[in-house]
């Protein structure tokens, strides 16, 4: 992401304070080796790599961080965390940034990403596990993008990746109980922010 205006770094910042309390990670332990970005399977699609996000947090550049696609494209695979020689759980850092964005009502840089997350969680609640066909149909209808993914869907069907009927799994009732107790298909962001330093 390139900005046309000069920025003023601020190492002592509310952004870093929030991220460290929410994620329990020491941001200044990052010494910019780049192993996180080198190993990230989604780095090619991000406007800023994980290493760059860590540096922006160190510098207190909140606007640049919150407007990035990176925090929304991160799939929490934890490859970055496992590769970090400083033992920073970068996936937790990304999660804390998403929590902050939701708490502040920031518009995600990726269109419909919030819709996708909620649809995915609804699928988990309904079947006790991910069911790609139900997820694809629900998301396509809700996003009103009826023809945008037909090519990908056809390929997945031919490769046997889209099963029409969801498989029965053990523990599905327990998963529904978890969702009913939280009362939502998304985390209570306000509670997370108020209790940012506790687990």
Helix/strand class: mainly alpha
Which shape, going by the Cα principal axes?
globular
Name given to the CATH homologous superfamily of the largest domain = Alpha-helical ferredoxin
Strand content: under 5%
- What number is the mean pLDDT? 81
Rg, nearest Å: 19 Å
- Count of alpha/pi helices: 12
* Low-pLDDT runs: 187-199
The sequence of SSEs as H and E is HHHHHHHHHHHH
Number of domains: 2
Alpha-carbon distance between the two ends: 34 Å
Quaternary organization: single chain
DSSP helix fraction: 40-55%
CATH class of the largest domain: Mainly Alpha
The CATH topology of the largest domain is given as Fumarate Reductase Iron-sulfur Protein, Chain B, domain 2
Structure summary, number of beta strands: 0
| Biggest sheet character | none
Please identify, by name, the CATH architecture of the largest domain. Answer: Orthogonal Bundle
Give a quick precis of the structure.
By secondary structure, this protein is mainly α. The protein is 54% helix and 0% strand.
Notable characteristics:
single chain; 199 residues; mainly alpha; Fumarate Reductase Iron-sulfur Protein, Chain B, domain 2; 2 domains; globular
Overview of the structural elements:
- The chain is mainly alpha-helical and 199 residues long.
- It has two domains: 14-109, Fumarate Reductase Iron-sulfur Protein, Chain B, domain 2 (Orthogonal Bundle); 113-193, no CATH class.
- Helix content is 54%, strand content 0%.
- The chain is built from twelve helices and no strands.
- It has helices at 14-23, 35-39, 50-59, 62-66, 70-73, 79-83, 90-104, 113-127, 132-143, 150-158, 172-182, 189-194.
- The protein starts with 13 loop residues before the first helix and ends in a 5-residue tail after the last helix.
- 22% of the residues are buried.
- Mean pLDDT is 81; it is low at 187-199.
